[in-house]
Amino acid sequence: MIKISLNDGSIKEYPKGTSALEVAKDISEGFARNVISASLNNETLEISSKINGSGKLEFYTWEDDLGKKAFWHSTSHVMAQAIKEFFPNAKLTIGPAINNGFYYDIDPNNQKISESDFEKIETRMLQICREKHNFKIRSVSKKDAIKFYENEENKYKVELIHELKDGEITFCDHSNFTDLCKGGHIPDTSIIKAVKILNISGAFWRANQNNKQLTRVYGISFPKQKLLNEYLENIELAKQRDHRKIGKKLKLFSFSNKVGLGLPLWHPKGVDLRERLVNFLKKAQKKAGYQTVITPHIGNKELYITSGHYEKYGEDSFQPIKTPKDNEEFFLKPMNCPHHCEIYNSEQFSYKDLPIRYAEFGTVYRYEQSGELHGLTRVRGFTQDDAHIFCSEDQLDDEFKNVIDLTLYVFKSLGLNDYSVQISVRDSADFSKYIGSVSAWEKSEKAIIKAVKDKQLNYSIVEGEAAFYGPKLDFMVNDALGRKWQLGTIQVDYNLPDRFDLTYIDKNNKPVRPVMIHRAPFGSLERFIAILLENTAGYLPLWLTTNQFIILPISDKHEKYCQNVLNLLENNEIRGLIDNRNETIGKKIRDAELEKIPFMIIVGEQESDKKEISLRSHGGKDYGKMKVKDFVKIIKDKIKIEV
User: Fold this and answer.
1) Burial class of residue 278 (count of CB atoms within 10 Å of its CB; 0-12, 13-18, 19+)
2) Alpha helices, DSSP H only, in 455-524?
3) Are the C-beta atoms of residues 205 and 93 closer than 8 Å to each other?
4) CATH class entry, domain 70-239
5) What are the Cα distances from residue 255, in Å, to 172, 251, 259, 316?
6) How much of the chain exceeds pLDDT 70, in percent?
7) pLDDT, tens only, 119-133
8) How many Cβ atoms sit within 10 Å of the Cβ of residue 496?
9) CA 318, 319, 323, 325 torsion: positive or negative?
10) What is the overall mean pLDDT for the chain?
11) How far is Cα 115 from Cα 498, in angstroms, rounded to an integer?
């Protein structure tokens, strides 16, 4: 008999060789009907697989992220089958699930796959799905796997198989289709009720520009047609909310091929927005005891070798900057933390000095492949609201909780109230990805879990998503369209203090290692602004918007009074401008609406004579006539509620 631990904490005994599906049916037939994938001891498991050892068994439905992953991964096989039927000479490479759907990279082999083919591919996919083919995993020897794909003249699969160990290679079969695959499927194709091919793009084999460019076909699928319809409606809404479109319309930022891909150019209004965000956080940081530091945009290669960044991220960095001195190389700064470690190391601290909190809005650089760049959300140069706290072990809990409070304050002030938290821990099956000792990692993970529980936050634990030097707490924000974005992050690190030989003198006059906390409530200004623009559709919170009001004179004879109103409002630190154009008042109002200006102050004969204003808000609400001081109160009351 084997012992199976279930999600509710119960432990049940089953005969050896019982399948995951049989366990689900034992719980209840209704439950089993909704289960589409499973894992045993955090390892992906086919529902039909026989279980031969004890462990923790977890089931996933469509509502779970891992359930969706299995659903979309399975659909990628169906799409690959359909494409091969229409393009028999095409060579398949890889087809993973992604955050929303899946893709398959294909070498068309002198054929062309285009948008005109989407409809017939979708039709064939649905036919295959209705035929209810089971997904079956089988083990294959390395020799036979290579022979299979050599017969298909598929050099891509052969290359992948050469990197696998004999005894660990599996194929997935469904219908008359076979694919190299390590597993993680839904029971059969009939669960897939709706499919959509979304787009195609180019992608280099294994993301290497020296390799052949393949055709990447993106798709998505659902267990109900209604869900697909809702998704497509959200895509249309997302197009309207695209931060690139809004940024251009509001004159916030632009890109230039001459400057370089992935390097945003910030315009005056965009700089205003950035500076307000920066000043907002600086004010909160100062109150929390942070000290501002500034570090260079480049660093010696040896710095990043010491930190471990060179080993882990060397391929994602730009080429080294060589100097006339032999063997001296610099890199564009990929991270701020090594520089902050060196600032800490420049003097000897006592336990009485701790915690030390260094904060920097530091610009860092990482070479993203051109196909992965996307507006402000994926760039090659970005500014992090980075801070590093050096504290004693007994200060760690309070410091971590204080950073949680700061992050939630930022979210609340910007209207980001729909969020969840994710504790990202190491991959228990492969510690080679990380630096440091297992004991240090265990301490870090326990510290984060304790802090999150004490703050009574709902959380999930995700294996394999930790940074290479320590576990982290990620804040996942759901935007107005239900999309999930990772923004703020807090990390506990016992490893960099060790690698940089950081110490403080304790009460016994002995050198002791500090613990390091990495934190960035925004994540990066670029990504944060992009998500903020899309979440608000460009209607930013009043305290953050560039122009909080615009004065619209009905004729030029009222301009002097308009200037007096502008001066009064500016003296109250309320931002705005006068529209002096020779246009009708109707045209001025329409333009103000398009520019998403929150308040319009209309000034005509009556307003000028009575020293009043007529107030209208974005969207058409009429506040009527009032004194300027009354408008000041309206603005300040609204901002007080926001922040």
Assistant:
1) middle
2) 495-499
3) yes
4) alpha beta
5) 44, 12, 8, 21
6) 99
7) 999 999 999 999 999
8) 23
9) positive
10) 92
11) 54
> What's the average model confidence in pLDDT over 192-210?
92
Which H helix or E strand runs over 419? Answer: strand 419-425
Which fold is adopted by the domain 253-536?
BirA Bifunctional Protein; domain 2 (3.30.930)
Concatenated DSSP letters of 91-137? EE----EETTEEEEEEE-SS----GGGHHHHHHHHHHHHHT-PBPEE
Domain boundaries, the chain: 2-61, 70-239, 253-536, 549-642
Task: Quick: pLDDT tens for 552-593.
Answer: 999 888 889 999 999 999 999 999 999 999 999 999 999 999
Residue 439 CA, chain-centre distance (Å), reads 29
pLDDT at 429 over 80: no
CA distance linking residue 591 with residue 604, whole number of Å: 18
Instruction: Find out whether the peptide bond into 355 is cis, omega within 30 degrees of 0.
Output: yes
Helix ranges (DSSP H) in 317-433: 337-344, 396-413
Length of the chain: 643
pTM of the model: 0.78
Helix boundaries (H) for 371-437: 396-413
Q: In percent, how much of the chain has pLDDT > 90?
A: 74
By the 8 A CB rule, do 102 and 219 touch?
yes
How many Å apart are CA 385 and CA 184, to the nearest integer?
38
Return the closest-CA partner of residue 92 out of 150, 156, 40: 156
**Among 71-80, 357-366, 408-417, where is mean pLDDT lowest?**
408-417
User: In CATH terms, is domain 549-642 a member of 3.40.50.40?
Assistant: no
C-alpha count within 13 angstroms, C-beta hemisphere, residue 80:
29
Q: Which amino acid is at 273?
A: L
Class of domain 2-61 as given by CATH: alpha beta
Residue 321: count of CB within 10 angstroms of its CB:
12
Nearest to 40 by CA among 25, 69, 60, 13: 60
Q: How far apart are CA 516 and CA 292, in angstroms?
A: 17
| N-terminal to C-terminal alpha carbon distance within the chain | 59
pLDDT at position 316 over 70: no
Catalytic residue numbers, as ranges? 337, 366, 384, 386, 388, 472, 518
* Residue 289, CA distances (Å) to 286, 394, 506 in order: 5, 18, 21
Buried b (16+ CB within 10 A) or exposed e, 378-389: bbbbbbbbbbbb
552 within 8 A of 602, measured Cβ to Cβ: yes
Q: How many angstroms separate the CA atoms of 162 and 148, rounded? A: 13
- The mean per-residue pLDDT over the stretch 602-623 comes to 92
